[in-house]
Design a protein that fits this description.
Layout lengths: L1 H22 L3 H25 L1 E2 L2 E2 L3 H21 L5 H26 L5 H28 L9 H23 L7 H18 L7 H23 L2 H24 L4 H6 L23 H9 L3 E6 L1 H6 L2 H13 L3 E6 L9 H8 L7 E3 H7 L5 E5 L8 H4 L18 E6 L19 E5 L2 H14 L1
Parallel strand pairs: 3-4, 3-6, 4-5, 6-7, 7-8
Antiparallel strand pairs: 1-2
Helix pairs in contact: 1-2, 1-9, 4-5, 4-8, 5-6, 5-7, 5-8, 6-7, 8-9, 11-17, 13-17
């Protein structure tokens, strides 16, 4: 009976994972999907504690298990409640790294529990250890880079060294599977050390603009490592969850690369992001035209359609709520307002969607890049709030630019462009943006939150 209830709970949990993942595909249902999947995992954990048996014995050390879960829940809850929207990518990287670490620890424990296992068993153990370790150390480096505690490091020899290191890891893994006695138990520590090193060196040279892709890739690796844990324990819920996370992360990584018109190999090996400028084609008329708050308010208030393009600067300024206020003030004057969302804007997948959802911006107003570009030529004013690289025309007309070929939001097709920015500094990718000097563009300098607040005030009086 206990076995039946356990299997039933795992089945129900797996179903909630699938349904929850499906609901995550749309902003309106994403919250429900997240809660549903979490409830399914909670059911699986509870059922395991209550009904799991091994050789007729129930799980022991319940006190230690509950204490560990309590401490972990408290830490996770505290971090989630305190994190700011600007710190969300860092938290995602940190939590993802913890998942990879758990998968690696499971592999190490299981190796010692079954020293006489078959080749297939050892293969799963070693793959879980390697992938989990890479995910852990890579995620920690990503966390540090996103939090601006670790700087990019790139060298010509690093790519070759990483490829050699990866080949060494694979070689040791193959030998250890075919001939376990070659290395003995020390193979665990060898693979652990090399995998941790590879995770660090793999992420270190990747530039800031590519971090959303890296986070998605590391997330898929953690899912794969968890799936290997499911194989080891013959646990359907771990296997299902790991496969879903791994496959979803892989699909998202491919979509992100497609949005940047680059291959995954190019992101990993030929990344841009700390280096600097575009080609000489970006030079030319460098005249900047400014606009004051009053003129900006008049331009927006008497427009028929206004587009707001959010970027990471909006998150840094915590200005999403005021941006929503501007939207409401303009709509009260009969202006149609929509948001153009680039898939890689911000520092993690879906960053702008999450940011604006927190400010209660209606989901139908969040227009994806392809649809927004089709609306741009009928838009009177495009307001760029803290975005840079995702509206850079060099992606379309400068073959010498590092982002050439990357799909961008074509704000220059609008009748007027207002760029809200602190200064003329290059964006997160370190690339100059000719949009700032475009004939239709006017710069509105200042902190996004303060500037938007004043602009809302001006619009009210217009």
């Amino acid at each position: 009976m206990s076995s039946f209830l356990l299997e039933l709970s795992y089945l129900l949990g797996s179903v909630t994972f699938v349904i929850g993942l499906k609901k995550l595909s749309h902003p309106e249902s994403a919250r429900k999907g997240n809660l549903l999947a979490a409830a399914g995992m909670g059911l699986a954990i509870l059922a395991t504690i209550l009904f799991h048996e091994h050789n007729g014995e129930r799980i022991g050390n319940i006190g230690w298990i509950m204490a560990a879960m309590g401490i972990g829940t408290l830490i996770g809850w505290t971090m989630a409640m305190k994190v700011k929207m600007t710190g969300m990518p860092q938290m995602v990287s940190f939590f993802n790294g913890m998942g990879g670490a758990c998968a690696a620890i499971i592999s190490m424990v299981e190796y010692h529990s079954h020293p006489e296992g078959a080749a297939g068993y050892f293969l799963v153990v070693f793959l879980g250890l390697v992938i989990g370790s890479v995910s852990f150390s890579g995620s920690m480096i990503a966390y540090g880079k996103l939090d601006e505690k670790i700087k990019d490091f790139s060298a010509k020899w690093l790519t070759v060294f990483n490829l050699v290191l990866l080949a060494v890891i694979i070689g040791i893994l193959v030998v250890a599977v075919k001939s376990p006695e070659t290395f003995g138990p020390s193979v665990l520590w060898i693979l652990l050390a090399l995998s941790l090193l590879y995770g660090v060196l793999f992420v270190m040279p990747i530039g800031g603009a590519d971090m959303p892709v890296v986070i998605s890739l590391l997330n898929s690796l953690t899912g794969m490592a968890a799936a290997f844990g499911g194989f080891l324990y013959d646990n359907q819920i771990m296997l299902t969850g790991g496969i879903l996370v791994g496959s979803a992360g892989t699909i998202l990584t491919v979509l992100m690369c497609k949005a940047m018109n680059r291959s995954l190999l190019n992101v990993i090996i030929g990344s841009f992001g700390g280096g600097g400028g575009g080609s000489s084609a970006a030079a030319g008329d460098q005249t900047v035209k400014e606009i004051n708050l009053t003129d900006a308010a008049i331009l927006c208030s008497y427009a028929s359609k206004v587009c707001i393009v959010p970027g990471y600067g909006l998150a840094v300024a915590q200005a999403q709520h005021i941006c929503h206020d501007l939207e409401k003030q303009l709509e009260a004057k009969g202006v149609e307002v929509y948001y153009a969302i680039h898939p890689v804007a911000g520092r993690m997948p879906g960053h702008m969607n999450v940011l604006l959802a927190e400010a209660d911006v209606p989901y139908p107003k969040l227009i994806e890049m392809e649809d927004a570009n089709g609306m741009m030529n009928s838009t009177d004013v495009a307001i760029i709030v803290g975005a840079n690289d995702v509206v850079n025309p060099s992606a379309e007309n400068d073959p010498g630019s590092p982002i050439y070929g990357m799909p961008v939001i074509q704000v220059w097709e609008a009748k007027n462009v207002i760029v809200m920015k602190r200064s003329m500094r290059a964006g997160y990718a370190g690339i100059e943006n000719p949009l700032f000097f475009h004939a239709k563009t006017k710069m509105l300098f200042g902190d996004a939150k303060d500037t938007l607040q004043k602009l809302v005030g001006e619009v009210k009086m217009t």
